[in-house]
Amino acid sequence: MPFGCISARTEKTYNCFSDITDKYELGQLLCAKEFCEICLAREMQTDRLFVCKKFMKKDGRKVRRAAKNEIMILKMVNHPNILQLIDTFETKKEFYIIQELATGGDVFDWILEQGYYSEKDASNVIRQVLEAVSYLHSLRIVHRNLKLENLMYYNQNNHSKVVLRDFYLSCFESGEITEPCGTPEYLAPEVVSRHRYGRPVDCWAVGVVMYILLSGNPPFYDENEEENSESHNRKIFRKILVGEYEFDSPYWDVISASAKDLVSRLMEMDQEQRITAQEALGHIWISGNAASETNLKDGVCAQIEKNFAKAKWRKAIRVTTFMQRLRAPESSTECLPVTPRSSMSVSHEVTVEACPPSPAPSPSPCSLQGALRSPRRLMETAVSEGHVAGCKEHGGP
């Protein structure tokens, strides 16, 4: 055999766990999410605090793919409204992702804690989300899981920036995308119908977020079913497929016409006609002075408490939902009012949330650093005080 035909197989090199612990001090488990476990990490050299996500390879192909996907996307992006990647490690058994730590809490809690809340405040949130989405779309990245639960305030300052997180479902719009995934109430009609889709699905989701921020209600809902039931999701999907939402009185009576216009353009049924993120940034409600300064605090907060804060979406829908097309049982008489192509069931990877009785402020970096040196205190401090929004599903062992 000619010498040139001989090739040496290079084996994949892995990090040792000591590579991580030599650089970071890891705290005890804060929570478990759809694909990963989350803890705090303190960088030894600088004393800075970060979030560490751990993906267990033994948990299956979907988990391994989610970890690789998030790492690949985060290595590409650099935007002030996206939580930045700090470090990654891959051992033989796990993937570790070290990211910036956002301590300002989620948008739900922020609204509930405000003494005054207006369209101007909602416009500021949506503007920042659109800037992040427009940036992602310029790279042909589709987030695919935009929702209020994935929006956080970077810190506790009054004028803190909003940051976007969780990119494990993101993908590149490099070909035809038909795989349905996301959270039911935020899905665009083209996803529900299992048609080809792309970046416009993110704009639809921004429209759903904006609708909730202005009224405290979801645009598509079913009050008669458990949120994690198949029947509930089928009813939600029916409404999405026909665009069945309204600007209900009295919740929308004081909302400006320009706000309603932008919601309608973001939630345009035809994805080809839907407004883009970049176009939405030029809308008068975002870039002009059309957003009202009327105080919406009482009405919006009452509806948020009713619809979200007391367990509905925060309990069952803070999950990633994978829709799988299944043949309907022969005994079933109920089906979606669409072509057979859209018949589907919904399976959830559900996490149970242990919500504190009321929102509490985030601990200071000093208290978190002290907690890192005491693992049990870390868990109690971070979970009970909710410093990492979205990390209240369940605590460590």
Task: Write up what this structure looks like.
It is a single chain. This protein is α+β, with helices and mostly antiparallel strands. It folds into 2 domains: 17-102 and 362-385, Phosphorylase Kinase, domain 1 (2-Layer Sandwich); 107-348, Transferase(Phosphotransferase), domain 1. The protein is built from 14 helices and 13 strands. It has helices at 17-21, 61-76, 107-113, 119-138, 189-192, 200-215, 230-241, 257-266, 277-281, 284-287, 297-309, 312-316, 365-372, 375-385, and strands spanning 24-26, 31-32, 37-43, 49-56, 85-90, 94-100, 141-142, 151-153, 162-164, 171-172, 181-182, 321-324, 345-348. The strands form 4 sheets. Strands 1, 2, 3, 4, 5 and 6 form a 6-stranded antiparallel beta sheet that branches. α4 (119-138) packs antiparallel against α6 (200-215). The longest helix is centred in the first third of the chain and has 20 residues, at 119-138. The protein is globular. Mean pLDDT is 79; it is low at 1-7, 310-371, 373-387 and 392-397. Its cofactor is Ca(2+). Keywords: Calmodulin-binding, Cytoplasmic vesicle, Membrane.
